[in-house]
Design a protein that fits this description.
The complex is a heterotrimer of chains A (about 475), B (about 350) and C (about 240).
Chain A (H helix, E strand, L loop, with lengths): L9 H28 L23 E8 L6 H4 L2 H14 L7 E8 L4 H14 L4 E3 L4 H13 L4 E4 L14 E3 L4 H15 L5 E6 L2 H13 L5 E7 L10 H9 L4 E5 L2 H13 L5 E4 L6 H12 L6 H5 L3 E4 L10 H13 L1 H7 L3 H19 L6 H11 L23 E8 L5 E3 L2 E3 L1 E10 L8 E2 L9 H6 L1
Parallel strand pairs in A: 1-2, 1-3, 3-4, 4-5, 6-7, 6-8, 8-9, 9-10
Antiparallel strand pairs in A: 10-11, 11-14, 12-13, 14-15
Helix pairs in contact in A: 3-12, 3-14, 4-5, 6-7, 9-10, 12-13, 12-14
Chain B lengths: L16 H23 L2 H26 L7 H18 L4 H23 L4 H21 L1 H4 L5 E2 L11 H25 L1 H11 L1 H6 L4 H27 L1 E2 L6 H14 L5 H23 L3 H23 L3 H17 L17
Antiparallel strand pairs in B: 1-2
Helix pairs in contact in B: 1-7, 2-7, 2-10, 2-11, 2-12, 3-4, 3-5, 3-10, 4-10, 7-8, 7-10, 8-10, 11-12, 11-14, 12-13, 12-14
Chain C lengths: L1 E10 L2 E11 L4 E5 L6 H9 L6 E6 L2 E2 L5 H6 L2 E4 L11 H9 L5 H14 L1 H5 L10 H13 L5 E5 L7 H17 L3 E5 L3 H7 L2 E6 L2 E7 H6 L1 H8 L2
Parallel strand pairs in C: 3-8, 3-9, 6-7, 7-8
Antiparallel strand pairs in C: 1-2, 1-4, 4-5, 9-10
Helix pairs in contact in C: 3-4, 3-6
The chains are: A alpha/beta (about 475), B mainly alpha (about 350), C alpha/beta (about 240).
């Protein structure tokens, strides 16, 4: 056979050259692009250096951060909270700030995705140099950064979630604010035990730690023999249709009282599904999914053409709350909250008015302002934690019960009151419409998240201080 | 035979693929070290680490879709398999990190085989549909078996502890970059090997490939397994970088982002995986800066990133369907033709002038 | 020796082949002729395992191959060059050949056969590192045959190799095939529309019409039968 000479065909050489050239260009391009995006010239050290002064605090400002769902399925409703919080901070800034420091509140969207939460939180810490996070939302999202923030001794304050996990000695820099879900569950269960003894009870709860913790609380009060059906749902599956199967199962089991641990979308879809089955049991709904200005518009969409009106469907529904319901327009707190929102976040006020979400935001932010003031003019991270542990119980907030903060407890409110939507009660009027309001049907209760009795709280919540009312 | 000018000696990379790829990888590693250690801020270093593990997932998908021609909308779910495996190992065992990563790769590769076998019977939209179901359904399992997967709260991962006083974020980024470069070398060698030829043969013409003696179904499953293993490693790094593994980290949008990133960077290329990674990580950041500059505030920018990404994707598809890297290649070959014009006649001969 | 006995192939309701039998001898070229749609391509596909006959047997060197997978048929030594295909455009000429030689196993065996095949087709040797998509029609056909030969087959099935090729090119191709059948003791089955040039190199011929065998004889006898030629072969 003829020996072929070793011809290095030009195309082969060209390809080899092409590849090496390209590789170098690629690495160079990546470096250039990344360097161009490097916006912070200060923190370029490769080791963590201990800051000389408190990060996020200057003589004229305090920088706070948060990650919240502004896009995605969790956003609706929850995206109102951060702007409402900003109303309180703007009010405070307009009145001299906290010891002369203006509050700068930076919040980023994490779309309820813990991976995004991790990136955005690092951005807040490394680029925006925050003093603390306040009002970040979600359990899986905040669990993702709990270790990171605590390892850097950055306070993770007033997390918007009722998980039991925020009061954990392993993570001393984290704390909650709203009542733990099991507290709400116990209180609702206690009410059901006393008012619906002997009736058949059904549960319809979200298939995650929120629903599971509410159920834990319910089961501590309601005898298990009374519970005839326990249905759950997945928030993502709501996108494919109403939980008709679950409601049918509850109806078939003969449930007379159905307890909901649901987000507003699920509440409205479930009630709509029940109406479709010509069934209206007694609904008992956890505060998370009970706000009528949030649930109402959803129900109206669902009920269109089916003869279902939101206010009629919600009439008689029992729910819990831990701050005065926005329907109580004679309540001094409700009045000042509305004024704050209107004056300092007019865009949000004009869009949503004072509904459950905006009220939540204002109450939370006002609590935090008290904490900043209690920490004194020499503001440090540890100082903030100590001030809350020491004075938290005495903060004047809209809450129906005092805050529980102590050196060992990092929960805010550990109590609630039970209400019932009634057609005769004054309605809640917001830009989206007029929605049914409720009346209190129980005293205010307190209880711990774990085992322990439900107690009646006999104190009176303090009214808003004159300094707030006069300057709002 | 006309004389063809040879390019200068110093620009010659050795002809063996493995050595060539290793040299490129080492050069890149040096570049990354300088970048992350001296040039970039800590935050941007974390982002470079993210680019690295996204590049791993995109590179694997490039093999499957670009080289082997199978479309997958399900690679977010395969990342979830790797992430959960790694997290479970971190929670319940004290295994060495490398071992944990290898097991995560293996678990995802097995998942890739399980998915790949029925996939051999499906084409185009049907395959896409099946992988779509996987992307939506698999992460939901994380919510079902709450006792194992810790439901909503998720499994907390322990980041690897760095030696000495090195910043842990930097250390993790280096590990991610190292992992990405190792994978790139392996994938590049795979593509140059007979497997790479088999992948492309099957993609081009299944009948011709089978007539050449290739086991078409087996080749397709191998491609799936390889790409799944890459996704699994990327998922494990995602688990380490975000600190927790829960189903909320693997929405459908992740699978679609990975596919879009691969297309944008250049399907079938490995350098394209890095372009795609840069796009996925930096577009939201740039959107954030743009909206801040435009005074839209932190609320308005939330959707801007998605809009920008979508717009760029549409532009790239219209102007350069083979992605960014494809565009570079065209520029490169255009430059080559100018730089190395052969001095003789056409090298090819047709049958008519044959020597027999 | 390749034996086809009573093979019937159905595509759904369509009977593409009905009770077809033929024998192809080693070292000879057997040509299968007939009009379009007569079933010639289907017969080749049945031989290589791309379709499985409803009835009948296919035997090669005494081994029954009916119903086996394509990979197994290839391993048994049958190489099929389909009409207009057989070349992987995504790969270079050399890579196509390496693909074809994969089943030989050892690297040295692969390298040896590739060198031999490139000698057989000098234009391919010159275009070694070009992508198959850049080859002309004639070069592609050569590559398809070369790739099939790279597996050192014992039988070569060719489906209309002269399609689209200039007459002078076809003539050269036929010459190569004749040389191969003699020197490599290959069993060649050649499906052709161009009956004249096929009969000029073949030893035996089979004529198909509407899925059935209408004539089977030596090539010279068939070529001499003017009636048959007019009726079925168009010349």
């Amino acid at each position: 056979m003829k020996q072929a000479t070793d011809i290095t065909v030009p195309s082969q050489q060209r390809r080899a050259k092409r590849r090496s050239l390209k590789a170098v260009v690629a690495v160079a391009a990546i470096s250039l692009i990344a360097a161009a995006c490097s916006s912070s010239p200060s923190s370029s050290s490769s080791t963590t250096a201990a800051p000389a002064s408190t990060p996020g605090v200057t003589s004229s400002s305090i920088t706070l951060g948060a990650t919240v769902p502004l896009t995605g399925p969790a956003a609706s409703g929850y995206d109102e909270i951060a702007p409402a919080m900003n109303a309180v901070f703007a009010w405070k800034n307009a009145h001299g700030g906290v010891y002369g420091r203006k509050i700068n509140y930076i919040y980023y969207d994490d779309a309820y995705n813990p991976a995004s939460t991790a990136t955005q939180t690092r951005k807040l810490v490394l680029q925006d140099n925050i003093f603390a996070t306040v009002g970040s939302l979600g359990t899986p999202t905040q669990t993702a950064v709990q270790g990171y923030l605590n390892s850097l001794k950055i306070p993770q304050m007033f997390i918007e979630s009722g998980c039991n996990c925020w009061s954990d000695p392993k993570y001393p820099y984290s704390s909650g604010w709203e009542p733990p879900y099991s507290v709400e569950g116990k209180i609702l269960g206690y009410y059901i035990k006393n008012h619906f003894a002997g009736k058949k009870i059904g549960y319809f709860t979200q298939n995650d730690e929120f629903g599971q913790d509410v159920v834990k609380g319910l089961d501590m009060e309601i005898p298990s023999s009374d519970v005839v059906s326990r249905q759950t749902y997945d928030p993502t599956s709501l996108l494919s249709g109403p939980p008709a199967n679950q409601m049918a199962a509850l109806k078939a089991a003969g449930a007379q009282v159905v307890v909901f641990a649901t987000i507003p979308a699920a509440t409205s879809l479930a009630i709509g599904a029940a109406e479709g089955l010509n069934w209206s049991p007694q609904y008992v709904v956890d505060s998370v999914g009970a706000d009528s200005p949030t649930v109402g518009p959803l129900l109206s969409i669902i009920g269109k053409g089916k003869g279902l009106t939101a206010n009629t469907a919600l009439n008689g529904t029992i729910f819990d709350d831990y701050i005065p319901p926005e329907a109580e327009t004679s309540n001094a707190w409700v009045q000042v909250e509305a004024k704050l929102l209107k004056d300092y976040a007019p865009a949000t006020y004009n869009k949503y008015g004072l509904d459950g979400n905006t009220e939540y935001g204002i109450a939370l932010a006002y609590t935090f302002v008290q904490a900043l003031e209690a920490a004194g003019p020499h503001l440090t991270r540890q100082g903030l934690l100590d001030a809350i542990a020491r004075d938290g119980k005495n903060f004047i907030t809209p809450g129906l019960v005092p805050l529980s903060y102590s050196s060992t407890v990092h929960f805010g409110y550990e109590g609630a009151q039970v209400f019932q939507y009634e057609a005769s009660a004054p309605q809640i009027t917001v830009p989206s419409g007029s929605w049914i309001g409720g009346k209190a049907v129980s005293p205010v209760y307190t209880t711990s998240p774990g085992a322990g009795p439900v107690n009646v709280y006999s104190g009176t919540p303090p009214p808003p201080p004159a300094s707030l009312v006069n300057s709002a | 035979m006309p004389k063809i000018p040879r390019p200068p000696k110093w620009f010659h990379l050795p002809r063996q693929p493995l050595v060539r790829h290793l040299i490129l990888a080492i050069v890149a590693a040096g570049g990354f070290y300088l970048l992350t250690n001296d040039i970039l801020s800590t935050y941007n270093t974390v982002l470079v680490g993210e680019i690295a593990f996204y590049a791993i997932a995109l590179g694997g998908l490039s093999i499957l879709t670009g080289a082997n021609g199978q479309i997958s909308f399900g690679h977010g779910a395969l990342m979830a398999v790797g992430a959960y495996t790694a997290a479970l190992l971190m929670v319940h065992t004290h295994f060495n990190l490398v071992l944990e990563l290898l097991i995560a790769i293996g678990a995802a590769a097995i998942a890739g085989v399980i998915v790949g076998i029925p996939a051999t019977r499906l084409k185009g939209p049907y395959l896409a549909g099946m992988t779509l179901i996987l992307a939506v359904g698999l992460p939901l399992l994380g919510n079902q078996y709450g006792s194992v997967f810790n439901g909503d709260q998720g499994l907390v991962t322990t980041p690897p502890s760095p030696p000495g006083s090195v910043n842990p974020e930097l250390w993790l980024t280096w590990i991610e970059i190292l992992g990405a470069l190792v994978i790139m070398v392996l994938l590049a060698n795979l593509m140059k090997s007979r497997f790479g030829r088999m992948f492309r043969a099957v993609r081009d013409d299944e009948v011709a490939a089978s007539l050449a003696g290739i086991h078409v179904a087996r080749t397709k499953v191998i491609a799936f397994a390889v790409s799944a293993g890459c996704a699994g490693l990327a998922g494990a790094f995602l688990a380490l970088s975000s600190g927790v593994v829960s189903s909320g980290e693997f929405p459908l949008s992740l699978s679609i982002e990975i596919l879009a990133g691969m297309v944008l960077g250049g399907a079938g290329t490995l350098v394209g995986a890095w372009w795609g990674g840069i796009a996925l990580v930096f577009f939201p950041q740039w959107a954030s800066s743009i909206s801040k500059a435009a005074g839209l505030g932190t609320g308005g920018n939330a959707y801007l990133g998605t809009i920008i990404f979508g717009a760029v994707l549409v532009l790239v598809m219209m102007l350069a369907p083979s992605g960014i890297q494809g565009g570079f290649r065209r520029v490169g070959s255009f430059a080559d033709r100018r730089l190395f014009r052969p001095r003789g006649g056409d090298v090819t001969k047709s049958l008519q002038t044959g020597s027999e | 020796m390749l034996e086809v006995e009573g093979v019937s192939v159905q595509y759904g309701a369509v009977r593409a082949l009905e009770d077809v039998s033929l024998t192809a001898e080693v070292g000879a070229i057997t040509t299968i002729l007939g009009a379009n749609g007569a079933g010639k391509t289907t017969l080749l596909r049945a031989m290589s395992g791309l379709v499985h006959p409803r009835r009948g047997t296919i035997r090669f060197d005494g081994r029954v191959l009916t119903g086996r997978s394509v990979e197994q048929v290839v391993r048994a030594g049958i190489a099929h060059v389909p009409e207009g295909r057989g070349v992987i455009e995504e790969l270079t000429v050399e890579e196509n050949l390496r693909l074809g030689s994969l089943i030989l196993g050892s690297r040295s065996a692969q390298k040896a056969v590739i060198a031999e095949v490139l000698e057989l087709f000098p234009p391919l040797r010159d275009a070694r590192n070009r992508y198959a998509s850049s080859l002309s029609g004639g070069e592609r056909q050569m590559l398809a045959i070369a790739r099939a030969l790279a597996s050192r087959p014992k039988a070569l099935l060719l489906d209309e190799p002269s399609l689209g090729l200039a007459p002078i090119v076809t003539a050269r191709l036929m010459a190569v095939l004749r040389e191969l059948s003699r020197s490599a003791s290959l069993t060649i089955i050649l499906v052709e529309q161009n009956a004249r040039s096929a009969l000029s190199i073949a030893q035996s011929a089979v004529v198909l019409n509407l899925g059935r065998v209408v004539a089977a004889d030596t090539a010279s006898s068939l070529a001499a039968d003017t009636n048959l030629r007019h009726h079925y072969l168009g010349f």
